[in-house]
């Protein structure tokens, strides 16, 4: 699995939920560690695995920040 993850070169946003017992945060940490260009965000939620459905504002912030960083690097590259 580590070898396969290491082949991923795309910028990757990994989001985990601190109370998720279906996909525990340590699994998201593993993904972020082994994908070379990954960024990990950890949502705080009382709703476990369904937290991404409830904590929309938190998730939106992570996504906006991820893509705005990407946009800044692209604009800087072509200036």
Structure overview:
- With 79 residues, this protein is of the alpha+beta class.
- The protein contains four helices and two strands, in the order αβαβαα.
- Strand 1, helix 2 (25-34) and strand 2 (38-43) form a beta-alpha-beta unit.
- The chain is flat and about 45 Å long.
- The termini are far apart.
Q: Sheet with the most strands?
A: 2 strands, parallel
Strand content: 15-25%
Question: Helix and strand string, N-terminal first?
Answer: HEHEHH
Q: How many helices?
A: 4
pLDDT below 50 for ≥5 consecutive residues: which ranges? none
Tell me how many strands there are. 2
Give the terminus-to-terminus CA distance. Answer: 38 Å
**Average pLDDT, to the nearest integer?**
91
Integer-rounded radius of gyration: 14 Å
Shape assignment: flat
Structural class: alpha+beta
Helix content: 40-55%
Going across the major beta sheet, what is the strand order?
Answer: 1-2
Keywords:
79 residues; alpha+beta; two-stranded parallel ribbon; 4 helices; 2 strands; 15% strand
């Amino acid at each position: 699995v580590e070898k396969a993850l290491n082949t991923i070169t795309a910028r990757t946003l990994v989001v985990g939920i601190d109370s998720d017992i279906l996909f525990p945060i340590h699994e998201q940490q593993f993904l972020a560690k082994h994908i070379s260009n990954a960024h990990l965000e950890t949502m705080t939620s009382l709703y476990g695995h369904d937290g991404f459905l409830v904590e929309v504002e938190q998730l939106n912030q992570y996504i906006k920040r991820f893509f705005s960083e990407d946009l800044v690097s692209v604009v800087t590259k072509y200036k």
